[in-house]
């Protein structure tokens, strides 16, 4: 789809402000009936083309208001060519990881990876010396699984024989690409970042529960918990 | 009194938090449902119905295809139309080697169903988090709005923002930050890289999840399309760190 050519809107430009007000008068929602299988919707890009400038710039103005000192950086909605150039390495990474990911699903149920197998062996050994019906309350850590981006380690918390929480003890931070993006990212977002430990949140959207290493470490944490409690199976 | 359960299913971790309930059997019912969905819909399982449909061994119209599966297929078809192909479960490289991978819809759909089930049992206040996609009912344990952190795409242990939500509502985040969770543009077959993440808030988790994925494909411009979807709002964080939101979305953000 074509990105609307935005003439580098400057929030302080009075002409732009006027234009925004005109465009902003157009209702953003509710005009078009919701899509149903019988009716073909107009192309999203085309449908939104005119209001595109309005919303982008309005959002930009809003952001500029929030982070006035960053206005020079946030007033463009165009992608930098640098970002687009990242597509090639990303494609390679994606293909590699997809393969690894497919393997990982098996890892959880069948524990085929080396680390998980080792943990299972430990669990079985321990289980032969004692027999219990449920895992004792407490926290149990899994193995540290190392992937190309760093270490991942998971801890499970049992209460009443059930897993009540899963916590990430170590998280990979050696991703060069992330670091590079990070250093290039706007201070607006960095200053916006909130420690998930200190923030009083009930839950997190966009969590990290899908990686191969997460599953490997989680499985071994569960195995360790059972081993420590003498639970079989 | 509350119940908190964590289940590993559908290749992710699903946590279920029931406020003011001690109904273990309800948890068992929800967990059984999620595993049933996994059995039928998993493209990782060679003999799942979805794998057989993907290989063309079973037609979607075949009488053996249950109503639930047809419902999912129909809605996926509607979404492909509505997004002009930006969300298309028939153009996704699937783990079973086919081009048919409805996971991007099924997870949200099954959790939304679980939320309906919980509510039908009289539990109003609850939180289900399925690998970062959240379905909420009512209020939290303190009777306050749920506080939903949105993961910071570049700092895994940090949050980009906090949303205040009163259920029933769903919050879905799709991102390219998690390796393996890359998003492929069905129209080109190439990974979409403009955005680091997209978050959508709305009444239905299945649609919110699909819309978040759609945003990742459409990029910043997708927000204009999202703003036309009644009841839904959202934000995107670009790969170079900019935050852009729909106007409505800012009402959800904590001050």
Characterization of the model:
- The complex is a heterodimer of chains A (233) and B (255).
- Chain A has a domain at 107-184 and 212-229.
- Chain A has ten helices and six strands.
- Chain A has helices spanning 14-24, 44-47, 49-66, 71-74, 81-85, 87-110, 114-129, 176-184, 187-192, 212-229, and strands at residues 138-141, 145-147, 150-159, 162-170, 194-195, 203-205.
- In chain A, strands 1, 2, 3 and 4 form a four-stranded antiparallel β-sheet that branches.
- In chain A, strand 3 (150-159) and strand 4 (162-170) form a beta hairpin.
- The longest helix of chain A has 24 residues, at 87-110.
- Chain B is α+β, with helices and mostly antiparallel strands.
- Chain B has a single domain (2-251), classed as ApbE-like domains (T-fold, Roll).
- Chain B has helices spanning 24-41, 49-54, 67-82, 103-120, 205-218, 222-227, and strands at 2-9, 12-19, 126-130, 133-137, 146-151, 158-165, 169-175, 195-202, 233-238, 243-245.
- In chain B, the strands form two sheets. In chain B, strands 1-2-3-4-7-8-9-10 form an eight-stranded antiparallel β-sheet. In chain B, strands 5-6 form a two-stranded antiparallel sheet.
- Chain B is globular and about 50 Å long.
- Chain B starts with a strand and ends in a 10-residue tail after the last strand.
- The model of chain B has no long low-confidence stretch (mean pLDDT 88).
- Strand 6 of chain A pairs parallel with strand 5 of chain B, so a sheet runs across the interface.
